[in-house]
């Protein structure tokens, strides 16, 4: 709709035609029981009198034209296929009436609304309709619309082509008929028994079914009449078997996450230190080095994408005590169940970036995660945050197909910007907005991944500016605190302004803390940014009764201050929660800022603004159209 003259009925035809082709939503032959009535006598009283006599509840004088009135019933307009001839004829016969037009109904669509029945994803895979995490229509008492919005990404043509995801786990049954065609044998390896075949060790108790189930969530083939459909059903999946040996070693971990980083794009890990609520552990030296190498050198320098399950320790554990999940180099993913509540095993912490789906709480056997299983079988019961990480890996594969240039940081920015609160609810922690208005939650991070939103943004994405690191300040003196008297420390920082490493727009923030206490599990640490965003760095872990070790230069991480300006005063609150009195000594707090000097989304924001401008123009045009319709009615009537 570029330009049009402002008068006459010819205009109206052009406009209507344009509207039909633009929205495809105009329904023909819809009549309303609303009438445009032109009267000889133009007073309101005369009109009201007439309307009542003809059985209309309401009448309204129109602000345009001469002697024009709107006659209508009280109830919501009803669409009907046939004109209300009787009404019309009776009105026409009335000598007080100059002319009568019944209003025709036409389509206008609410923007940004997607009807679940409109989704055009026809799959013949028997478990597809049970995969509520892909398309949630309310299966298994779930909440419709609470899903990964993969259908939109698929409709846009993104299915994971050209992307390889490695499942670092207990092996993959690559002979499974729903996995075989998407299996990438060259990129696979078995570090548990040092051979190229990461085939799972079959046991009576299905103990090693984990990796096979995770693989199906990402890459199970579509439309082959077997099991379900992977989130990125045309991606390739590699198996890295590394969990099935008596002990984990630094070498096995490091080898796994640095396996073929130029071939493997995304590594999915659903493991970590024991989730017993008393462990504080993270990657050792080699693994740390391998991760750093991965993000710096993997994928031709764009960086390997590491997706991590945030942990299954429930409210007794805190994922900031898990150095894999809380690493800046991993994207840590929590899970929600199909009605938006937490699965009870979910761990909360300030380093979680976003969430996907798993099961829990619900007895309904179909509320689990449907995927591939051992013995060439399928299952409806995959569970845990284990099930959540591969879903995220699948969504990231879709984003990488949409834009292979995305760096590991771009992927995190996209996650922050496009994840949605949707219908998630956390009974404990409120949803809040940080200093730049991004909505987050302590349990779910920035919300549930939105594949459609992500691929659309990915497609247009410009790589974020260079990253800088600034030590904002450090408190090194020892400070005592007790259950009665918590400790408040502050660091006021210019965020290295004036130096090469000035950080103006935050990505990750780390608080490196050394503390020891009479009971580590009762320790509670909060940190508030200059913009007023409070991150819970450590919450109570009732099972952790450590009295000796405490935390030794432990990097607590928060993603909640993403995008904020870090300059100003940061506040650390250190205290105890629990039943018996405790004491502790705070020995170090070093504040590390990571982010960019220039605004990361400046191009994106400009583009957003432009598209909003275009939208508002479109709206203007539509309003003009409505006016033109009204005007032409006048014209028609004045000819009568
Ligand atoms: C495959 O799954 C079906 C349905 O859950 C089950 O009845 C059957 O025993 C399974 N087959 C094997 C070999 O475990
Ligand atoms: C802290 O650590 C020291 C040794 O470094 C130890 O003597 C002390 O008992 C620990 N506990 C507390 C509460 O300070
Ligand atoms: C940390 O924040 C939480 C939630 O606002 C609060 O309940 C707790 O008392 C705070 N802890 C300290 C040590 O200030
Ligand atoms: Ca093997
Ligand atoms: Ca299938
Ligand atoms: Ca944990």
Plain-language structure description:
The protein is α/β, with parallel strands linked by helices. The chain has four domains: 2-105, Alpha-Beta Plaits (2-Layer Sandwich), CATH 3.30.70; 123-459, 3-Layer(aba) Sandwich (Rossmann fold); 480-596, Jelly Rolls (Sandwich), CATH 2.60.120.260; 602-639. It has eleven helices and 24 strands. The protein has helices spanning 9-23, 44-53, 85-93, 150-155, 210-219, 250-257, 285-297, 385-402, 408-418, 451-460, 602-639; strands spanning 30-39, 58-61, 68-72, 97-105, 164-169, 189-190, 236-241, 266-269, 305-309, 330-336, 354-357, 369-372, 378-382, 432-433, 439-440, 467-475, 479-482, 487-493, 505-517, 523-528, 534-538, 551-558, 568-576, 583-596. The strands form six sheets. Strands 6-7-5-8-9-10-11 form a seven-stranded parallel beta sheet. Strands 16, 17, 19, 22 and 24 form a five-stranded antiparallel beta sheet that branches. A four-stranded antiparallel beta sheet has the order 2-3-1-4, covered by helices on one side. Helix 9 (408-418) crosses helix 10. One 2-acetamido-2-deoxy-beta-D-glucopyranose is lined by residues 516-518, 583-585. The site of one calcium ion has 10 residues, from loops.
Quick gist of this model?
One of its GO terms (cellular component) is neuron projection. The protein is an alpha/beta fold and 640 residues long.
């Amino acid at each position: 709709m570029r330009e049009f003259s402002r008068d006459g009925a010819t205009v109206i035809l052009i406009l209507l035609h344009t509207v039909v082709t633009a929205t495809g939503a105009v329904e023909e032959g819809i009549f309303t029981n609303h009438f445009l009535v032109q009267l000889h006598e133009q007073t309101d009283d005369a009109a009201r009198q007439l309307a009542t006599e003809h059985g209309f509840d309401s009448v309204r004088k129109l602000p345009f034209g001469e002697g024009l009135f709107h006659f209508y019933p009280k109830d919501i307009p009803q669409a009907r296929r046939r004109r209300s001839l009787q009404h019309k004829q009776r009105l026409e016969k009335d000598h007080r009436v100059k002319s009568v037009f019944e209003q025709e109904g036409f389509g206008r669509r609410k923007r940004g609304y997607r009807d679940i029945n409109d989704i055009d994803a026809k799959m013949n895979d028997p478990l597809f309709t049970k995969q509520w995490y892909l398309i949630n229509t309310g299966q298994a008492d779930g909440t419709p619309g609470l899903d990964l919005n993969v259908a939109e990404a698929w409709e846009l043509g993104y299915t994971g082509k050209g992307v390889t995801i490695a499942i670092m786990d207990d092996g993959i049954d690559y002979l499974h008929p729903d996995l075989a065609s998407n299996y990438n044998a060259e990129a696979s390896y078995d570090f548990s028994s040092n051979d190229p075949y990461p085939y799972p060790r079959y046991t009576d108790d299905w103990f090693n079914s984990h990796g096979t189930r995770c693989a199906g969530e990402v890459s199970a083939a579509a439309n082959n009449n077997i099991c379900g459909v992977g989130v990125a059903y045309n991606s390739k999946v590699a198996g890295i078997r590394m969990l099935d040996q008596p002990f984990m070693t630094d070498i096995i971990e490091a080898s796994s996450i640095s396996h073929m980083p130029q071939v493997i794009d995304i590594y999915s890990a659903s493991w970590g230190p024991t989730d017993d609520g008393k462990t504080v552990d993270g990657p050792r030296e080699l693994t740390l080095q391998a991760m750093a190498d991965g993000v710096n050198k993997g994928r031709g320098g764009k960086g390997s994408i590491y997706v991590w399950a945030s942990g299954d320790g429930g409210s007794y554990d805190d994922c900031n005590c898990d150095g894999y999940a809380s690493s800046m180099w991993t994207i840590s993913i929590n899970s929600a169940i199909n009605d938006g509540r937490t699965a009870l095993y979910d761990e909360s912490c300030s380093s979680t970036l976003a969430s996907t789906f798993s099961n829990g709480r619900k007895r309904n056997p179909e509320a689990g995660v449907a995927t591939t299983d051992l013995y060439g079988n399928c299952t409806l019961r995959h569970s845990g945050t284990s099930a959540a990480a591969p879903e995220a890996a699948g969504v990231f594969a879709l984003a990488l197909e949409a834009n292979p240039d995305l760096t590991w940081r771009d992927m995190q920015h996209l996650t922050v910007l496009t994840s949605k609160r949707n219908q998630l609810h956390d009974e404990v922690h409120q949803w809040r907005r940080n200093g730049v208005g991004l909505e987050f939650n302590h349990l779910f991070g920035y919300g549930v991944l939105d594949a459609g939103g992500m691929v659309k943004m990915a497609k247009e994405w410009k790589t974020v500016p260079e990253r800088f690191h600034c030590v904002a300040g450090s408190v090194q003196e020892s400070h005592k605190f007790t259950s009665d008297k918590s400790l408040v420390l502050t660091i006021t920082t210019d965020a290295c302004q004036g130096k090469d490493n000035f950080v103006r727009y935050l990505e990750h923030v780390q608080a490196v803390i050394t503390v020891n206490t009479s009971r580590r599990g009762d320790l509670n640490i909060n940190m508030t940014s200059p913009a007023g965003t409070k991150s819970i760095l450590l919450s109570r872990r009732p099972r952790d009764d450590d009295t000796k070790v405490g935390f030794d230069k432990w990097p607590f991480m928060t993603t909640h201050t993403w995008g904020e300006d870090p300059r100003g005063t940061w506040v650390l609150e250190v205290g105890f929660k629990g039943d018996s009195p405790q004491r502790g000594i705070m020995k170090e707090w070093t504040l590390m800022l990571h982010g960019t000097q220039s605004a990361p989304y400046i191009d994106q924001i400009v583009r957003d603004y432009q598209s909003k401008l275009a939208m508002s123009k479109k709206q203007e045009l539509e309003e003009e159209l409505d006016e033109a319709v009204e005007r032409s009615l006048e014209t028609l009537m004045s000819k009568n």
